[in-house]
């Protein structure tokens, strides 16, 4: 992953498989769409009888159990670069989650763009042995700076286009998450190197309100999949960048000393 908030870039590998989709407590409702982007607003259903710790309220008075994590046996990774130079290593589940053991340190980058890598499972009661592969993606370089929002103004974004086709771009623009999200923009786009988010969507997002430290998160990804009896398992190669966003009237803070004279730092991390 490229740097976030000035931290150095790093590689990571983490996997977990469930016996079904994971239900969510917040339901996102489509408010508007334009050019591959969707404005979503949150809705929290109410269940008069609490769902307890093993389920979540997904609709009015409707509880749905959480999906259960599963093991796939030992997983062998092939084609990922490590600091030792080894191109193969194994992972055993810990609480049904998979990541490289402490003795294995991933290199950065962990693969070359377009280069194939794969995971091979030894099999389990949940799924017999299978192989799943994907291809590496280039580190994402979001070149637009600064990123500023304004009423009735489209938001142009540019990034370095990939040399190898096959990847896609996801954008998440949530400017109120530190105050309890009032809405967000989700975009699923072709990886062409540029896009422009519709002025109407930007205006509607701003009108929902903002909190401190608003950011935009952009992800380049490419996925492979494998069919198992219970459904489908995906292996996703991704590169993510998170950058600050300028919002009119918002001064972010973690302490009142960071605010202009006469203002105090609020729970939503804004000066007022």
Secondary structure blueprint with pairings:
Blueprint: E1 15-18, E2 27-34, E3 37-43, E4 55-59, E5 62-65, E6 69-70, E7 75-78, E8 88-91, E9 97-98, E10 116-121, E11 131-135, E12 155-158, E13 168-174, E14 184-190, E15 194-197, H1 199-208, E16 215-228, E17 231-244
How would you summarize this macromolecular structure in one to three sentences?
The chain is built from one helix and 17 strands.
Overview of the molecule:
This protein has one domain. Helix content is 4%, strand content 37%. The protein has one helix at 199-208; strands spanning 15-18, 27-34, 37-43, 55-59, 62-65, 69-70, 75-78, 88-91, 97-98, 116-121, 131-135, 155-158, 168-174, 184-190, 194-197, 215-228, 231-244. A hairpin with a 2-residue loop joins β2 and β3 (37-43). The two termini are 35 Å apart.
Question: Which labels suit this protein?
Answer:
272 residues, mainly beta, six-stranded antiparallel β-sheet, four-stranded antiparallel β-sheet, 17 strands
